Amino acid sequence: MDKKTFIIKGDICYSESLDEIKTFENHYLVCEGGKIQGVFPEIPEKFSGVPTENFEGQLVIPGFTDLHLHAPQYAFRSVGMDEELLEWLQARAFPEEARYEDLEYADRAYGIFAEDMKRGATTRACMFGTLHPEATLLLMEKMEATGLVTFVGKVNMDRNSPDILRETKEESAKNTLRWLDGAKGKFKRTHPILTPRFIPSCSDGLMEELGRIRREYRLPVQSHLSENQGEIAWVRKLCPDASCYGDAYLRWGMLGGELPAIMAHCVYSGETERRLMRENGTFVAHCPQSNMNLASGIAPIRRYLEEGLRVGLGSDVAGGTTASMLRCVTDAISVSKLWWRLKDEDCRPLTVPEAFFLGTKGGGAFFGKAGSFEPGYEADILVLDESRIPWPGHFSLRERLERFLYLGDDRDVLHKYVAGERLF
Ligand code: GUN
Ligand code: FE
């Protein structure tokens, strides 16, 4: 029988919608050919004879999607967390990213990153590399070897950047094509994504070139949007004709539409910007830890959800100190409480089911059917180990999941499956 056809017995939790976590104690999760068939109290007749793994008493949940992180920044995560975005980029992020011209350094740094991503609770991710085509291909090779499904982008930046980390418009377009050609036909689960860093780093001429490449290669796009007040004021000066920051992407076809887009942060997205994102099906990557560390502010996610925006979660390493999606889920709840208490009493905090949904099915939607155990979904599965966090009395399955989200970490993932393939 195909290795991607199996049954897991355990205490199963997953989301179908924002408002509820489905829980099934001592049930059977059936996967056939890498796709979920369903959750059953007994093994259905049709699947008798399918190999069954007995994880009785253990939590079994869908894998998490990290919709936004910077692979080259993993090396310095949690160092220098006392600056705001624009100073932090100059002082920390740009100098570190410039090092990836050296492939030996890239090999060491991306090796550490890939190993940690493999071990953790993330099963799918969308990440920035650096502007270097070779190092970005190396990152793609390493991600491919982890077994995770990822989108990886060579970064584009041709203005307002230090000499050590800048291309001309022509170089940027040429290097993008070289990177795309280098990746062509080479990977099964690692996909290219167009990555203009953000408007301040990309001239109109470069955006026009990238728009052409996007259409020709049918590429999704990822970037940053309305993260910080200083950045927004800067974009207003750089693009005086744009009705809002989001419009500065939209005019180059970079806000979504037929080819999808992920915009990280959206802390200060006003009415017009939110309407444009809704109309274009833009994915908002909410990065709560980065919002705190870089003192950017808090994205009012409940409002966005009420308005029907598509939202997932991102660690934004190294704006976020950790790549753990467990922290990302609980920090999304925490920052929403501060927003409610300090800014808007009508905007209730996110609940555990809502934050869990965003970390799994919300971000997973960027990959199609991922992040849930409904029939037809990709079999991205985590078997969790609660032995580090024992408890003396009774907790419901829902409560056990909740305390795992808060108290567990990436070390506590016992087994991980991505699209039905067991990684460990
Ligand atoms: N905006 C442009 N570049 C970056 C980056 O590397 N991190 C974050 N958080 N925001 C950005
Ligand atoms: Fe970022």
Automatic annotation (TrEMBL):
It comes from the Bacteria. Signal peptide: none annotated. Keywords: Hydrolase, Metal-binding, Zinc. Pfam families: Amidohydro_1. Its cofactor is Zn(2+). One of its GO terms (cellular component) is cytosol. GO terms for biological process: guanine metabolic process. Residues 59-421 form the Amidohydrolase-related domain. InterPro entries: Amidohydro-rel, Metal-dep_hydrolase_composite, Metal_Hydrolase, Metallo-dep_hydrolases. One of its GO terms (molecular function) is guanine deaminase activity. This is Amidohydrolase family protein. It comes from Candidatus Limivivens intestinipullorum.
